[in-house]
Amino acid sequence: MDKALIQHAKEGDKRSIARCISLIENQAEGYKEIIASRSGSSDVPVIGITGPPGAGKSTLVDGLIGVYVEEGKKLAVVCVDPSSPFHQGAVLGDRIRMSRWYNHPAVYIRSLATRGATGGVNPAVHDIILFLQSCGFDLIILETVGVGQSEVGVAKLADLSIVVLVPEAGDEIQFMKAGLMEVADIFVVNKSDRNDAELFSSQLKNMLHVSASPKHKDIQHVLNTVATTGVGIQELKNNINQLIIKS
Ligand SMILES: Nc1nc2c(ncn2[C@@H]2O[C@H](COP(=O)(O)OP(=O)(O)OP(=O)(O)O)[C@@H](O)[C@H]2O)c(=O)[nH]1
Ligand SMILES: [Mg+2]
Questions:
Q1: Lower Cβ count inside 10 Å, N or C end of the chain?
Q2: What is the CATH T-level fold of the domain 43-246, as seen in this structure?
């Protein structure tokens, strides 16, 4: 294993980071050394963003990158698609939706369309996140596509979990019952330019009993956004920061 490669990655060199991640992803020779190069715990926050296909996760992440970069933050974004290993749509979506950031010096974006041998989330995702926490980023965003159990595992990797829904998300309420309900810190009702967005978010709020929780009195757990125009992005960032600082 090339010690200089790990060193360069830790200094934030994107090519070296990419190479190290590929080695971890493929469990190629030397990957254990890369993982072991990270010692101790990290306080670099990991923000998980999950929700059904096409809800606007990548568009939201694109907007979030914008507000964080404006603050001078360095970000790594990892997009995982555990539900459909052979479907490249999400990866293409990431490419298109976040295209303006791929070559930005403060941003590193990586898509992983792989699945673990047992059918769940590739265990390498965990190691990759831990590795990225040691590469000089201020924040890591983890986007996961899915409506099943697999992304609950990914959500557990995150310090803060955001579930993105759309106004006509009756079906998704079912998947939330299946586990995401407990892991979600913030619900985003995206595509709020559509009909009944307010109605849906108030139903969601009632369901979550947000108002009944004095602990979260000052934190809005349900937010309406229009990712394509940036409506609600700043508020989302404020919510994220509030929760991260609190925890
Ligand atoms: N009307 C409307 N369309 C939106 C909004 N946000 C995203 N879209 C559109 O929804 C489509 C999917 O957006 P993506 O950001 O790729 O969604 P995603 O959840 O990342 O999709 P996958 O990663 O494939 O699951 C795109 O055509 C976006 O332009 C919104 O707030 N309003
Ligand atoms: Mg996406």
A1: C
A2: Rossmann fold (3.40.50)
